[in-house]
């Protein structure tokens, strides 16, 4: 499969999911999707219930045609892009069906991947980059940062033996 074919099939998968969302909104809520507000998300179209003594949530405005169009366009583009990534990594095994499924599930796939991969790396901000580089070279770097004098090195005795 060519890369451009993967993009087209993936974009079709994203478009198919947007079309399904459109159909569900029209059939279930009898409204266009960009006119569905937060209070229409319960089956009886009543306001979302709250606990006794709490203020009801403020009504969220319906997103509108522009927001819905931007969201749909982004979903189609993300579906095509993710499908292109799959096709480019294994063009021999990629098929139109795999590309459509990748495009249709692109938001879910990306959400799951971002929960597995930490996006931010928190380091010790009290050390300078040159100190971090020096400690990485001499082997005293651990996951929490460079070793302080109070921390034992990996494999170093902590003062207690198993028999005590």
Task: Give a structural overview.
- Strands 1-2 form a two-stranded antiparallel sheet.
- The longest helix has 27 residues, at 3-29.
- A hairpin with a 2-residue loop joins strand 1 (141-142) and strand 2 (145-146).
- The model is unreliable at 140-151 and 158-164 (pLDDT under 50).
- It has 164 residues and is mainly α.
- The protein has 5 helices and 2 strands; from the N terminus they run H-H-H-H-H-E-E.
Summarize this structure as a short list of keywords or feature phrases.
mainly alpha, 51% helix, globular, disordered C terminus
Shape: globular
Fraction in beta strands: under 5%
Q: What is the typical, i.e. mean, pLDDT?
A: 74
Number of helices: 5
Q: What's the helix-strand series?
A: HHHHHEE
Strand order of the largest sheet: 1-2
* Helical coverage, percent range: 40-55%
Uncertain residue segments = 140-151, 158-164
By helix and strand content, what is the structural category? Answer: mainly alpha
Rg of Cα set: 26 Å
N-C termini distance: 66 Å
| Overall number of strands | 2
Major beta sheet summary:
2 strands, antiparallel
């Amino acid at each position: 499969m060519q890369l451009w074919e993967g993009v087209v099939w993936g974009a079709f998968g994203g478009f198919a999911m947007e079309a399904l969302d459109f159909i569900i909104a029209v059939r279930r809520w009898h409204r266009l999707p960009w006119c569905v507000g937060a209070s229409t998300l319960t089956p009886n179209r009543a306001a979302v219930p709250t606990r006794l003594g709490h203020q009801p949530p403020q009504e969220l405005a319906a997103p509108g045609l522009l927001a819905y169009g931007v969201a749909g366009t982004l979903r189609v583009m993300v579906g095509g892009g993710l499908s292109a990534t799959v096709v480019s990594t294994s063009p021999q095994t990629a098929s139109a069906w795999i590309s459509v499924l990748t495009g249709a599930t692109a938001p879910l796939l990306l959400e799951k991947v971002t929960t597995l991969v930490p996006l931010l790396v928190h380091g010790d901000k009290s050390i300078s980059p040159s100190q971090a580089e020096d400690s990485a070279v001499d082997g005293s770097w651990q996951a929490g940062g460079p070793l302080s004098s109070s921390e034992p090195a990996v494999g170093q005795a902590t003062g207690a033996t198993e028999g005590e």
